[in-house]
User: Fold these one by one.
Assistant:
Number 1:
Amino acid sequence: MYFNEESVVFCNGKFIKATELTTSSYSQSIHYGNGVFEGIRSYDTDQGARIFKPYEHYKRLKFGADVMDIKFEYTEEELTNITYELLERNGLKDAYIRPVITTGADMSLLTSDKTDFIIQCWEWGKYMGDKLLRVKTSKFQRPNPKSCFVEAKVTGHYVNSILSTNEAKKNGFDEALLLDMNGNVAECSGANVFMEKDGKLYTPPRGHIMAGITRSTVIDICKEVGIPVEEKHFTIDELKNADACFFTGTAAEVVGLQSLDNYQFPSEWKDTHGYNLMKLYKREVLGQRQKAKAS
């Protein structure tokens, strides 16, 4: 699904076949979840492959490495150039890109001074698909920000996402919605959430959430086109009185919700800000909005 015998990855300074990758069974990343990663997309445009906001993604990768005390010395520019070359070597334009820094063989609970850095890419459609989602409120909470760095994409943090997704799927739902430690809406298992009520959008503020790059892009688009948007805490009861709701993320892009638990969102999806933003976001990642503004 993700690679074949011709697939190329970037590993520790070299381009090699994906089939040549090896992993130590003593890696801290396997035993303790100590590693960081990113999810990035490239799009096929009139000018060729276009990686969307690579500097922002690689800046966040470096932030994760820094807070986890993982040695990592590449610059955002170097990483961007390497990624474009990797896409070319794999003959890909529309692609999902997964850089990951793993930590070496060390059974102590001090970050290993050995690391491996890998960038992989493959063709991958929208993670949550295009249909409206049926979502379940999870019994699992988003991690307490005093227990970890919630804005870093640390590999071990995503056990929380797996638990909530498994719970939702086993109960016949498409996705899970997690609350924070205070009972406010946080995010879904792998994307941020926006609520629409009376023509205005609301999204949880930073602090208990992953500060998504797609989320910030959508907020910027809202401000440009005049859609009122506010970052504020809101409860599950408030969300169950909303007109509409949608998720945002690099893998998911923009996807609407049909229902939350037993609550059906009343607005027709095509009449919502979320639907409009889904279209605008697609134009944004393809570079079409910039061209229109320039002309």
Number 2:
Amino acid sequence: MKITAALVKELRERTGAGMMECKKALVGHSGDIEAAIEAMRKSGQAKAAKKAGRIAAEGLIVIQQNNSQATMVEVNCETDFVSKGDDFKNFCKTVGSTLLHKNPKNLEVLMAMPLEGFKKTIEEARKELIAKLGENINVRRFAMVDVVSDNCLGVYLHGTRIGVLVSMQGGNTQLAKDVAMHIAASRPLCVSKDFVPAETIAKEKEIFTAQAVESGKPAPIIEKMVEGRLNKFLNEITLLGQPFVKDPDQTVEKLLKTSNASVTHFERFEVGDGIEKKTDNFADEVKQLQEAN
């Protein structure tokens, strides 16, 4: 695989390592960026394994609710200018209303539904908007949370770019909203350790073991080091293990227990999360790589 300047740049952004270290790691792993990151973390070269692609596209998050459910949809466009225009905002709002009232099973079904108040489908309206605005428009994803008798629903929209829905048993609406605000700020991947994929735990354990071995300490000490680092990692990525944003002296788990509440499910959308934004100017990186060859 050709090691492009764009690939080197992405690895630099995700690890904080130098350009030549990144290029060397990519060459050594045939351009596999994930394998390169894992190897760099094991050797201690990577300063931080950041997630790539956050806020890499423009658009809006729209949340709507009624007495029985809440819905959330992300609609993307190419520029911040278009996302602030009335045409785009009205389209997003109407898609959200259609979603709330029609309960589609998946995105394909949603796109084939008539846009609320119109005869044309959402897909047809999307294509018309593309022609009018001159940008690509995409209804990317949606989530729905039902309100049942023993549940509280937490809803939080941070501006127009981050949205959270939380389903909670016990507690009250204010607590559910506070937890939703926490999720918006702290980005947990799942509710608890029980929901972390086994392969994720195994990979992190392997990395932590490789790092601990470098210390030269005895095996029993290394085992405890790995266990401690793994527990810290799991607390950082799970809702229950994180310090509550409004009161960092207690975890979210402790907060919920004091109210005899539990989070059964949550959804967090951030505009452009995971979408790689196109970058056209890599002149400096290309020049440096050419000079290094």
